[in-house]
Batch of 2 targets.
Target 1
Amino acid sequence: MAEKFVSERNIRFLLYEVFDVLELLKYPYYAEHNKEVFDMVLDTALRIGKDMLYPVLDEMDKDQPELVDGKVKVHPVVREFMRECGQGGWIAADAPFEHGGQQLPVMISLVSNFIFAAANYSASVYPALTTGAARLITTFGSQELIDTYVPKMFNGEWQGTMALTEPQAGSSLADITTTAEPTDKGYYKIKGQKIFISASEHDGVENVIQLLLAKIRGAPAGVKGISLFVVPNKRIGENGELVPNDVNVTGIYHKLGYRGCPINQLSLGENDDCRGWLVGEPHKGLMYMFQMMNESRIGVGMGATAIATAAYHAALEYAKQRPQGRRLTSKDPTLPQVPIIEHADVKRMLLFQKSVVEGSLALLFQCSKYRDLEMVLEGEERNRYSLLLEILTSVVKSYPSEMGILSVSQGLQCLGGYGYCDEFPLEQYYRDVRIHPIHEGTTGIHGLTLLGRSVTRNNGKAFQLFVEEVSKVIGTAEKDTELKPYAAQLKAAVDRLKAVTTYLVGLAIKGDAELFLADATLYLEMFGIIAIAWQWLLQGITVQEALGSGPIDADLNFYKGKMYALRYFFAYELPKIEVLAARLEKSDGLTVEMQPELFEG
Amino acid sequence: MAEKFVSERNIRFLLYEVFDVLELLKYPYYAEHNKEVFDMVLDTALRIGKDMLYPVLDEMDKDQPELVDGKVKVHPVVREFMRECGQGGWIAADAPFEHGGQQLPVMISLVSNFIFAAANYSASVYPALTTGAARLITTFGSQELIDTYVPKMFNGEWQGTMALTEPQAGSSLADITTTAEPTDKGYYKIKGQKIFISASEHDGVENVIQLLLAKIRGAPAGVKGISLFVVPNKRIGENGELVPNDVNVTGIYHKLGYRGCPINQLSLGENDDCRGWLVGEPHKGLMYMFQMMNESRIGVGMGATAIATAAYHAALEYAKQRPQGRRLTSKDPTLPQVPIIEHADVKRMLLFQKSVVEGSLALLFQCSKYRDLEMVLEGEERNRYSLLLEILTSVVKSYPSEMGILSVSQGLQCLGGYGYCDEFPLEQYYRDVRIHPIHEGTTGIHGLTLLGRSVTRNNGKAFQLFVEEVSKVIGTAEKDTELKPYAAQLKAAVDRLKAVTTYLVGLAIKGDAELFLADATLYLEMFGIIAIAWQWLLQGITVQEALGSGPIDADLNFYKGKMYALRYFFAYELPKIEVLAARLEKSDGLTVEMQPELFEG
């Protein structure tokens, strides 16, 4: 297996040409780094992806984790990779020096996480979850918690997780019932059930640290009574040894895809001996968890983009090599067949994939850059990027997740019957990528979050900032002859989005909450398409500059290909917003009105 | 497992109320039947689906067929079901009495095939393939071939298949290289490789009869040199015993879904002892095969619709039972949670599924009715239905296949994390349904077929007939106050389709074949949406009549639900044609122009 699963050229294009990561070096926080460091990260991540992760992609899917006597056995590469990630500093890549991190820009950790996920999504989840969990502790936990847990998580010996979902509370965290009973010994006694917890027990690490939501006895009802706890599967005994902490795996899910990573059902405190340590203050757990969830949500968008990217490269490779049929203009059966990439419809399918995956990756870089700037700026400037991140989180989570499914499906389609068979990785990608519109908030939930919260909060400040950011790119693109028509098209689309938003917010002001949010998923879809168009136009600006300065031959094809993908997106994808906008402005309440019993029969 | 996988009410609605199958009884060909017979077919099919097929849905997926020593072992239910289908007359249901069939309307065999496929798609394929293969022999074969093979196929002892695809010739049948060497003994010696042949060897039957395409030595190049042969896996020896016919299974595919039915790779004539019998005349094989392919294509659309229907009912069931969250208007966390079917976004997902699956099923009934009328009419009238079938075949194959994927995906989404796990059947449906845009011609091929052949042939006669059929329904609907706006919307859509067609055909006339067909897949998509809207409006007419005559209470909900699904389709789906039309009329040749090397980088 030596197939390509990412485009190094495209990563370099986004990192250095479009988003200019080196610009960050002027800030003291990043000043110790330089381009050589970034290049090394990229090269090493590619090597790990190619040599360690991609070769076991199929194996990890076929030999899925099983639960035996309460233990979960995973593929041996998990241990190897977690060690590599610990020793290589990957888990702590963007953590600050003070916590033992590498203090690298998030754009750089995006690169490595993206490469790992494209090589083998299941494997990539173990360290990524650990990064997020450790960050929760370093941000909100006491120094004692930090000292106890974070070093072993950063060095890959211990796994971190997030444990939110319960049987009766999936999307509705207000309804969790896991309890935390205070003791006078500095810990709480935890009791409850958690379901769908990724990597929450496995033999690739020495211990698993659950960042877990529970309610302290007597807490207020709903989300205002949720607290955050560190609950290790094994706690540290009196002599520093690890002792069981009454966290029991009661089930393992058999899944459509994403099979290399176990998702477990946990029972905590069955023997009244599960100890948890409060992170930060009581009842603020959900607020804290949102930090990790928002990072995880960007991570989900990244994972979907990565899988769809690998699928795109596999489809492209196949299309170049597979002879089948002849050009429509020369159907003489005595002539040799042509590679299927010569057929317009196959090129259309490939351009669709290219425009989706490269557009999504650009948006991920954009959000990562906002995170990097948020880290080094202060006051109003910092607030600007926080708000932009807030409004874009649902978008950068959902667009790649939903469109990633369609993109992989088109990749599979390029292979015809072979795409449906396990000789090629497409069928696995198709299964793996389906998780993303579900975990870390379903697409429906994100529609409600975007329209019902992010767009409306602070008098629409975040929305206004988003429009400003897009308008800046439009302003630049307008000055370029090639890009001018696309700039005009995007401007019209943004105007349409503004009008639709005003209309919908009007419904909210009138107090019609159900009508206001009835088609929030369509609003999210519309927003997502425009965000990706923005990212294509932004890439177009870089491309036009590069073409203007006479690139070398290999690069000429790369830049020209980018322009075709941009044109594709503006011709085939962006116009779809019109249908969504028209529907959103109609708001006849069809889906609110429809009564459940009318589905009978 | 006692879950619902089809709606009997909806089948009865389409069969008796919308398409009035009893109307066929006036033709002598069907005169021996009556409503009691049809009801009995429906009841029996439901019972077989419920008792025999649905209970092993999961098992057949998990214990997939394996190739051991050249033999393929399948689930024991295959043998049981094939016997049942033979003895119950299901395989020969719509075959004429003279060939030992039941001479039932195709609409009736659609009902049973649909029920079987919804209960267990993989199982349903075995008899369905046999029906098609037997019909090829009865239509084009000699009396000797008919007598030798058909009775055992109809009674379920022997399996029929269609063996077209070869390693170097998937979508391009012109390139098949399997050879047939004439002998002076009445048979040909067959030599070659076939791939992706469903059910081409298994232990659920005594013998498998391949309807196989090959080229007689010296035949013209391309599709004009293809002949059709009967090639049994075991031929009849001198004493009437079955002897091996040198047909060897060299591989079995491991597939994403559709796992209960083996797809094999075959090697024919390895020992120079594979005998095939010519069907009809030499070099006419492709024309003959198209009969079976066209039936199979309708069958593929039916299979996709059936799987998506089962997924819809599973999602609906879950949505009614799963409590999660609260209404937007009463978010008090101390109140009990509501079933998720109360949420507008879940209702939207369910309405999407309902509109797709019930719209698709209506189109399948429509095509089946055309087949029934084609059977009993003569001359110009008969020709009318043949042409309508020709133009609709690609549509009724592709719309359900493509939209079935999205429909099942939305069904899976309704279940959240559980949809991704194998405790519920959604993840299997999601895998099973993905085959349909691939087999019996990919969606891309059908786009080319529809626009490049069916629409343009005979001076656009078939297209004109299609417009007439739709216009008839519009004309009736216009007279109903409730339906009038939908009639107007569909009329505008048909006008748009006419304009786009004229524009595209103009390109063909100018000789620009590549530009003409560049976006044929989008044309197919547009055509499909309009065809389904037509079927919804047709159903709407029946619904309005029923509502006008004061239906009983249970029926009131059913009819009202139909109106919501109709409204949904016209509000959310039909408007999508505008984006497609706009793109088709632009035809800037983006995908023709894009060069393969520009994908590099």
Target 2
Amino acid sequence: MDTATRIDIDSLRINGDRLWASLMELAKIGATPKGGVCRLTLTDLDKQGRDLVIGWAKDAGLTITIDKIGNGFMRRAGRNNALAPIITGSHIDTQPTGGKFDGNYGVLAGIEVVRTLNDHGIETEAPIEVAFWTNEEGSRFVPVMMGSGVFAKAFTLEHAYAATDTEGKTVKDELARIGYIGEQEPGDHPIGAYFETHIEQGPVLEDNDKTIGVVQGVLGIRWFDCTVTGMEAHAGPTPMALRKDALQVATHLMQDVVASALRHPPHGRGTVGMVQVFPNSRNVIPGRVKFSIDLRNATDALVDEMAGEVKACAARLSAQTGLAIHIELVSSYSAIGFHPDCVDAVARAAARLGYSNMHAVSGAGHDAVYMAQLAPSGMIFIPCKDGISHNEIEDAKPEHITAGCNVLLHAMLERAGV
Amino acid sequence: MDTATRIDIDSLRINGDRLWASLMELAKIGATPKGGVCRLTLTDLDKQGRDLVIGWAKDAGLTITIDKIGNGFMRRAGRNNALAPIITGSHIDTQPTGGKFDGNYGVLAGIEVVRTLNDHGIETEAPIEVAFWTNEEGSRFVPVMMGSGVFAKAFTLEHAYAATDTEGKTVKDELARIGYIGEQEPGDHPIGAYFETHIEQGPVLEDNDKTIGVVQGVLGIRWFDCTVTGMEAHAGPTPMALRKDALQVATHLMQDVVASALRHPPHGRGTVGMVQVFPNSRNVIPGRVKFSIDLRNATDALVDEMAGEVKACAARLSAQTGLAIHIELVSSYSAIGFHPDCVDAVARAAARLGYSNMHAVSGAGHDAVYMAQLAPSGMIFIPCKDGISHNEIEDAKPEHITAGCNVLLHAMLERAGV
């Protein structure tokens, strides 16, 4: 690469208006009255969304491969097509009350990178691909991150195919119905490096007034179900001393879930999101309370330490009160540190482009978590309004959308070689 | 009354086997597989229960009056029928998963008193009546204690008639359908004194190993709905410091509800029985939590003091956290002290009969609460197994059933005069 070319590359910018227009166009499919999007995976609307994106990819000269779980790879050839492609992607399925940006931004940012390279006739050394992963959201079919999970062999294709929605429809039948069962075996697809651009889905960038989050990794997660068993009794005739109030005991443990996170800063997170009280009647002392515990931290050791503390608190409370407390592990996701080469590529691109930036961690799962098991991977976060996501009012600023895509462009070019 | 007669009266006892047999016979109507009874008010089963009891009353020579809300009065004439009758009663409707004794015992104990007087040819000075009140339980139609409430003019007949069940059927239509709209205006019925025999529905008598509870009064009740409003957010990407977790704030207030009861012994009671978390999702920080508060104590001043403390705690929590806390009064029932003459009549009868006994308070509402507004009233409690009621496993010992009825007999005779 001579000096003239390098200067051209350094000054290269994506077309923010075009990217924004594509986001708004895709958001029409499944648009909700409150400004959000409901485009559940493997529905007719999902098919329309996939078809639209693939149409854009074809217009941009990309070649399309669909694998057996419906993941799509849209490829721009490089100079040396024996090299593994540098891939970016995300998902275009949404939550039932989802927004315009979650996932969709990551896919369309990839399309915009390709369009920009086309505009300037830039050829990369390695091929570049834009991927969309099937059923990241998991709101119609579990598990979440299904397409990337099958790709990474976290679970089998058959397991994913057999998943049913609330009407009993299977993933396999619905994939076939919308015409998105491809030929390729999931995972039979080399990856040179993987980048994913995403709204932060949290308030940290906004709170710190930064444009770009250089994502270091994804927090480890432990999900538990906790059940406290007391004895239901009539609220009137039962004196305080003779009660076995399951809710009162539960409140202390719920508080310790938060306390354990506060004891392990800066990334410790503890949440009780779901509570069921039995029999849930105004004048009956709760006989049983079931609630969820969600613990997260930057390393598995830290999150396991938090879990140990919460269990110790439960044991203390049980001994003090005589009420049984049962804690059961529901799911566990290991902490992921993204590859230094990819993290550094993102950091360098943000610095070179002059965007304010900071280290970030992802508290939520993304398809990039599975890709990190297969190849050097990294993520780019941009702020979203009030940190709100999975909500029709999810919003992001056009200048941030543009900035994140410019960082993606330069990080990919660094890895792909020009 | 000469000495010989007095000795006869003092040694008079009800027939416990006959009372038990009647309880078991009535419990067949609406019997559930687990040994309970489901005989909701104004259903076909309720009609069958009413018909059975009235049949027994007619066999015992009683005359029947039904009022416009379906309350029944079964009268045994006295020597002086210008005197207001001494009435005992309760209800024969049950909870959906009710037991054999709640309410039913109070009515059939009255029938057994009459049968015993008949057996021995004893004539009372004042007439004696046995009442059954419509819809005490309130589980099909609200408000609870409907028949006695209309009788005491706590609300109007029209209000009660208009109440609908979940299928939209009205009290008036259902009363007419089962043939229990009578001629008498509710309340147009004199009461000399009122006694109600009931299982305790709490664990205090059993815990103290006493046979008879001499009920001093009924606790005042305040019901509130409390709503804590925070901001829902994704449990992963939202650091602890930037959260507005409605559940965590709510847990502190839930604990203060219990603490306020403990600060006001011996009769202070505080219960959070019902909790709804929004959106109630494992990985979403709760944005809103709604819960019930049930406060009770022996005087209105005490229960209002407890309510003031809980509200002050809510204001403190709201100031500390910035989260809005809204507390709304849903229902209020004044504390009732039963009439000393009736309380003493119960205490004297228990002592004379040699039953272990103690002062008791009723934490739950009963038809006697409304009667206490109209005439000297009192209640007799007997233990129930583990204090459990409103449950199919509700149980009481035959010897306690017998003892409570003997106390009723002697308390009524003291008030009616022999």
